[in-house]
Amino acid sequence: MHRFFVPPSAVDGDKVVINGATAHQIRNVLRMRPGEHIVVLDNSGREYRVELVEVERRRVTGRVVAQRQARGEPRTRITLYQSMIRKQRFEFVLQKGTEVGVAEFVPVVSERCVINDLEAVNKKMTRWQRIILEAAEQSRRGLLPTLQPAMLFSQACERAQRTGGLSLLPWEEARENLRTVLQGLAETPSSVNLFIGPEGGFSSQEVELARGYGLIPVSLGPRILRAETAGIVTAAIILYELGDMALPGGEMPGT
Ligand code: SAH
Q1: Chain segment 88-102, per-residue pLDDT in tens
Q2: Which of 180, 206, 225, 234 has most ligand 1 atoms within 8 Å of its beta carbon, as the pocket-test mutant?
Q3: Looking only at Cα atoms, what is the longest distance across the chain?
């Protein structure tokens, strides 16, 4: 069933009003008709099964026929601090990270980044939001992952310390292993900050700085993953290890 994120104001009791690009998508692209069902998400963590009532050019209305807590959200909130990499590869990270279950993305400019202009990076935000939205609908996420403005590595470390949680920095030369760190946790962290370096990796000064902010350098094992692969793989390992890959899914029953 087609899923759509809508503004919170679109759902009012059992009435749903959808405008703009989503209305266009429903009417002109998917050619849906009154009586057909969609799933609507208002970013509250709930999902609504909606029967279409009117399908007009710029406005689609519907009626909520069932609702429940959305099931696509991991209990552990992962923030992926991804060092800037080439455009297409960065977009790949946003799309695949959303599928795996990343809750928040922070583009980071670190020492060895080829792309290091914060302003230029921030011009891409609208396109990136769109990529995240489409991936979130397709992968049945219950909440739309957020995208923060780009920041420098030191600012990112400071933010991670401020927001709290377990902070990990995969680094090829780390002595501790990701698995050992995760298995040694006394309790499941409610949030994890995950720092991934650019193609050229992190410098040892950066690793030292990060340690000062409480980040733990971890090894992902003997194989070197590319910058666009490391975050996706590590996010999946974290969610698996914390038991978040085993929750039930399934469509919402209609009435
Ligand atoms: N230039 C480095 C590789 C960088 S890979 C080299 O050739 O040695 C890009 C990022 O992915 C790294 O900064 C790190 O955060 C992560 N990464 C990839 N493979 C890793 C591994 N085996 N252990 C820890 N981190 C890894």
Answers
A1: 999 999 999 999 999
A2: 225
A3: 61
